[in-house]
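To: structure subgroup
Subject: Chain for Friday's discussion

All,

I'm putting the inputs and outputs inline so they're searchable in the archive.
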Amino acid sequence: MSNETRSYPRHVRTEAGDIEFRLMTAADEAAVLAFAQKLPVHDLLFLPRNISQPKVLSAWIREIERGAIKSLLAIKAGKVVGCGTVVSDPHSWSPHVGGIRMVVSMDVRGQGVGRALSQETFALALGSGLERLVVQMTTDQQGAIALFESLGFKAEALLRDHVRDATGATHDIVVLGHNVAQVRAQMEAYGLSEAFPN
């Protein structure tokens, strides 16, 4: 299994212009907080914690520094416009499973930034040697669901009334999964492993 590490920064041309992808560090805390605080609250619902709160972001930075989380930033003209995160817990019962979380700024949506970020985050997860990946989002986020389905994710569960927003309204969450190890094994069996993205 390839544990090849992707090199960053890397640049991708999108309809929104040149987007730089690089790994998030503690130096990005203020820029990521500014990005998170501009996101619609609905976009934050499928994240386990509210990243627009400074104390939550500080905890996130500590998790990055201890290696439990890898976060990839999408940057346009010096500003954070997207963030993709891979979370795994080597001490849990599921050390082979990684969770992907992704949010994109409103002003670059529909311009290929989300697609590029989902592909980069997926590649980052593959490079971590994880065998299984899961992503969750509210059921109305059809664009995001379609993006992950295009990467081979399939809907596996619907969690009804799973999150509650600030107004008290509840929302359903859909969980999509990707069995990386199974797909990789199938591709290797057909001699297609070199086509698998690194």
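Points worth raising on Friday:
Helices lie at 29-38, 41-44, 54-65, 113-127, 142-150, 180-189.
The domain at 10-195 is CATH 3.40.630.30 (Aminopeptidase).

D.
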